[in-house]
UniProtKB/TrEMBL annotation:
This is T9SS type A sorting domain-containing protein. Signal peptide: none annotated. Gene3D superfamilies: Collagenase (Catalytic Domain). Residues 790-865 form the Secretion system C-terminal sorting domain.
Length: 868
């Protein structure tokens, strides 16, 4: 099943009853860092035209005076500040600052642009990387709704700092690269890369020549979350906008075709005006991460072309001192030349005793039609019924005072104006209604008695703790309210005793996050204790609105106790070792279609519903099913191995995806998985013995998973014993555990919200089991008297005959492999003193096995060989 995540971003704001309303919340996301100019991208397909170096030398010499003037103009206009992790040599530092100054003379912002430069060793073949440190959407002053802007551009449009002391652009360049040309007044040799050109290019990415479109992990489709401002200006050869989802689904193979068509363009009024035509983008038929889309076409814009700066390659000896008309035109229409209305989005309030002052500042890089500035307002009506309010103007500030009223009122409003050319701009962006949709963009708030309950997102993963634990941290709680939160606490009880209140603490630096923990005294908890609790959130209304989590009843979890450590543990689950395990989502049972007992997950296991990924609310959740061995194992140096037989029919991840990301987190594209984990601090922290696995591990499992499904894409295939595979885990391999550690072991099945299936079965568990021949270990001295197995060797069809003097009264027949694992188990009714039965073992592989008969209290055994 193809997986489509429902990543629900947490928007904790007041609710609204108007179906057209859409509260706008400013959001940030990490910037894209684009690596450029590896040797294979450093000019193999670009050549210097004849006489290029001499012409460029003359041009650079003629620019010296202009560069000096430009530096003076920066001091009075746009400020670009370059800071360094480690200050580079003076000539290198001069290049960074001259490149920054050239961009400053081409842009217009009343907010300082901060660039953080790292001049340091990088991997061989990497010259540099750069990008916006973060992107912002839905900020006051933006012109496009739900569109990501690089933070430097967002700050220019918002007319304020949005990211505190953090840099706006992060750029890194390889100090070990030996072929840099670091002059500014000459021309590089034919084997050198011009550092100034590379720096100018990379800063351009950080300022806005970048977007959000890429390929899905399986490379079959192109996709984006919300578009970047660059993406809003991409068109195909027929003039269709790539962000038009009525033409190009997101994600889709059709969109991939467009971005790898070699016929992709960036177009805007100012691009056409300055360049004379739309700009052609680099979109090779084989999509290249880091190069495709967000560069201009290198075949069209050759060395020396005014638009050559933002091609994906640079030739050795190439010098680019021009930003170029395509970039300048694009940046102008992205918002570097724009008109913006900066106004406040008021929160709900219960204070009806005051007039309400509405204020907006209007900024423009052109002329404003002052008579067009309007505050559109609707009170207790749809925003579509909004009318213009009378404004008072003072400079670029416009105000309106709404008289107080004792009645409760819902106020919907937005600001709008036109520049002298008639171009409309609004705050919030695209107010009041987004074309082609049934929803709008506007501000709203309520004045009067508050009846809105807090928004609370809390997922409780606690199902068990150990009696040795004294501090148990609760999952993070996220909450907000339209007028504010007054109290967040939990009420808990141990074994039905009186409830105790314990307040949550707001996490420093966070807007919505609160933390809490249980703090028990040593020895306070006993095995079997049950702890119940609920979370209570109250807002700051005069009559508090209260939310409980869970909505009714309580969460509860059980206290577990560990047995004394053991050197080994062997279990075939033919009897039910209930006291050895704590089970959540598992059973010790003999499942239908199996001849003996085993450790089984629920069949089928359910989709994830209990916990939220990384604080994300909504439906993007998961569930962990756990089987915990309550006998800790003391790890030995001789045989620190866990072996078991298993069947894994859990949702396979996308083809080729690894279990872990580069940062060590679990790859979400791995989907569901099973894993074995250990804890050497009595259950406080857990580590993976090895990476998780799924149905992709064996082709037989994957084929079985795919063999049957329902209309929702869930696998309905049912496992049989023919799917059993052996698994071995080295407890020391991860590096998290050492010899003599006392380790608690946990079997876990992780299920997300996507497809589900049959699940996991574990049998013949051996942890640090003695290394002996298991057949010899159980073989009686009177082996095989009266027992015949033929033919021997066999291809799989055996005739088993056993005879004794007295009546048999039933036979139990079992086949064991050389690892001591049962591979066949069946009971037979008998009459008289003779047993004669054909047994089909053709599903087993070649090897030596033992056939074991239990007759009343006697066990007889015979070795046999299968040859395939």
């Amino acid at each position: 099943m193809k997986k489509f995540y429902c990543y629900l971003l947490l928007i904790l704001v007041g609710s609204t009853s108007n179906l057209l309303a859409q509260k706008i919340k400013m959001e940030f996301k990490p910037g894209l860092i684009v690596e450029e100019y590896t040797p294979e991208k450093s000019g193999i397909h670009r050549e210097l035209p004849e006489g290029y170096s001499q012409r460029m030398l003359e041009e650079i010499q003629n620019r010296n005076a202009r560069a000096s003037q430009a530096q003076q103009s920066v001091k009075a206009g746009t400020q670009v500040v370059v800071t360094y992790e480690t200050v580079p040599p003076a000539d290198i530092k001069t290049i960074f600052e001259r490149a920054a100054n050239l961009w400053a003379t081409s842009l217009n912002s009343d907010v300082t642009i901060n660039i953080y430069v790292q001049w340091k060793s990088l991997a061989t073949g990497v010259l540099g990387s750069a990008g916006a440190s973060t992107n912002v959407r839905n900020f006051v002053g933006s012109n496009r709704l739900n569109t990501w802007y690089p933070v430097a551009l967002a700050e220019k449009m918002a007319h304020k700092n949005l990211n505190g002391t953090n840099p706006d652009i992060v750029a890194t360049f390889n100090s070990d690269f030996t072929d840099w040309y670091t002059g500014t007044d000459g021309v590089p040799k034919l084997n050198q890369i011009d550092l100034y050109s590379v720096v100018l290019h990379e800063f351009g990415h950080g300022l806005g020549f970048i977007g959000q479109v890429g390929l899905t992990s399986d490379k079959s489709q192109a996709a984006y979350g919300y578009p970047g401002i660059f993406d809003q200006f991409m068109f195909n050869s027929a003039g269709a906008a790539l962000m038009d989802t009525t033409k190009f689904d997101n994600p889709s193979a059709t969109l991939k075709t467009q971005v790898s068509s070699n016929s992709l363009f960036i177009s805007s009024p100012n691009i056409v005006r300055l360049n004379g035509e739309k700009g052609k983008l680099y979109a090779p038929t084989s999509f290249s991460d880091g190069s495709s889309i967000y560069h201009v076409d290198q075949a069209k814009y050759k060395v020396g072309d005014p638009n050559a700066l933002m091609t994906p390659q640079i030739a050795r000896g190439e010098v680019t001192r021009d930003i170029g008309p395509i970039v300048l035109g694009a940046f102008s229409d992205f918002g570097w030349s724009s008109s913006n209305i900066i106004a406040e989005n008021y929160n709900d309030t219960e204070d009806v005793s005051k007039d309400i002052l509405f204020t907006a500042k209007v900024y423009s890089d052109t002329l404003i039609n002052e008579s067009s500035v309007k505050l559109m307002m609707a009170i207790d009506k749809s925003i579509l019924s909004a009318t213009s309010m009378p404004l008072v103007k003072s400079g670029n500030t416009y105000t309106y005072t709404l008289p107080k009223s004792s009645t409760t009122r819902k106020i919907n409003y937005y600001w709008t104006a036109n520049d002298a050319g008639g171009k409309k701009f609004t705050t919030p962006a695209e107010a009041p209604v987004i074309a082609g949709t049934n929803f709008g963009s506007y501000f709203d708030f309520t004045v009067g008695a508050d009846t809105v309950k807090p928004v609370v997102i809390y997922a409780n993963p606690l199902k068990y703790i150990f009696n040795s634990q004294t501090t148990v941290t609760l999952p993070t709680l996220l909450t907000s309210d339209n007028i504010g939160i007054s109290a967040v606490y939990m009420e808990y009880s141990i074994n039905g005793a009186a409830f105790v209140r314990k307040d949550f603490t707001k996490i420093a630096g966070e807007t919505f996050k609160y933390s809490n923990s249980f703090n028990f005294t040593s020895g306070q908890l006993k095995a079997g204790d049950v702890i119940r609790y609920r979370v209570v959130v109250a807002d700051a209304a005069k009559i508090s609105n209260i939310v409980y989590s869970p909505a009714s009843g309580y969460y509860d979890f059980k206290v577990l106790a560990l047995a004394d450590p053991v050197a080994s543990y062997v279990q075939n689950f033919d009897t039910t070792p209930s006291a050895d395990f704590f089970l959540k989502g598992f059973n010790l049972t003999q499942a239908a279609g199996f001849s003996s007992g085993a450790l089984h997950s629920v069949h089928p296991y359910a989709d994830g519903i209990e916990e939220s990924y990384d604080g994300v609310g909504g439906t993007d959740k998961f569930t962990n099913s756990d089987a915990i061995l309550l006998k800790p194992i003391k790890i030995s140096a001789d045989n620190p191995k866990i072996t078991f037989d298993e069947i894994v029919l859990v949702e396979p991840g996308e083809a080729g995806e690894s279990f872990l990301n580069a940062d060590g987190t679990v790859n979400r594209s791995f989907f569901d998985y099973v894993i074995v984990q250990g804890s050497n601090d009595q259950g406080k922290t857990w580590y993976n013995f090895a990476n998780g696995w799924d149905s992709n591990l064996y082709s037989t499992w994957l084929s079985k998973w795919n063999s049957a499904s329902d209309t929702d894409g869930n696998s309905t295939a049912i496992a049989t014993s023919t799917l059993v595979k052996s698994h071995e885990i080295d407890m020391l391999a991860s590096g998290k555990f050492s010899v003599n550690d006392q380790v608690v072991i946990r079997f876990r099945l992780h299920a997300d919200v996507g497809a589900h299936g049959w699940g996991w079965a574990v049998d013949n568990l051996k942890i640090q089991a003695p290394k002996v021949d298991p057949i010899l270990a159980i073989e009686p001295s009177s082996i095989a008297k009266g027992l015949q197995v033929s033919p021997n060797p066999s291809s799989g069809l055996l005739q088993v005959v056993y005879e004794q003097a007295s009546d048999l009264n039933g036979i139990a027949l079992r086949v064991i492999d050389l690892q001591g694992r049962p591979v066949f188990n069946q009971n037979y009714a008998t009459q008289g003193n003779r047993f004669d039965q054909q047994v089909d073992l053709s599903y087993l592989g070649s090897g030596t096995y033992a056939l074991q008969l239990q007759v009343q209290n006697q066990v007889v055994l015979k070795r046999f060989v299968l040859v395939k």
